[in-house]
């Protein structure tokens, strides 16, 4: 009595994590400028499931707080950064994320401003493969050059997310065709 019933979670929304991220989390973040720890780790798991415990440990080591408080502090740092470059730099410098994960987080939170730094996309651009290994300032500058190239290379798509999907898909398909052409580099026993 007197207590409201908790809203039942539609667990099927997590089946397609990318759809959940860009249809739900992005909208929630635009409205509230914050994320739950669950939603933050949905981004992490989507980008690299195997990294989730390392990321949890890393952010708690930086903030010296529990996991929920650490995520809250990280998101506040991003929100309070004055521009796109500062948003990226705070994740790289203070929070010690690598460029691929930092760009994935920012791509979900600010899909009109960021795209995911991924080796497949670099392959399609024939450039930018090693920027993830540079010092933060140079990495940040080159990442924004990477964004310009992503934007220019797929003129028929109108969003960073669609451009990213196109370039990733093209890389995947070309790799698959190459693997089939070379019979997956498998030696046959009947030779």
Verbal overview:
This protein is mainly alpha-helical. Helix 1 runs antiparallel to helix 2 and helix 2 crosses helix 6. The longest helix is centred in the last third of the chain and has 22 residues. The radius of gyration is 19 Å and the shape is globular. The mean pLDDT is 93.
Considering the chains and any ligands shown, give keywords for the structure.
single chain; globular; 64% helix; mainly alpha; 191 residues
Low-confidence stretches: none
Structural class: mainly alpha
> Rough shape?
globular
**Count of extended strands:** 0
How far is it from the N-terminal to the C-terminal residue, by CA? Answer: 76 Å
How many helices? The count is: 9
Query: What gyration radius follows from the Cα positions, in whole Å?
Result: 19 Å
Helix content: 55-70%
What would the average pLDDT be, to the nearest integer?
Answer: 93
H/E topology pattern: HHHHHHHHH
Largest beta-sheet details: none
In short:
With 191 residues, this protein is an all-alpha fold. Helices cover 64% and strands 0% of the residues.
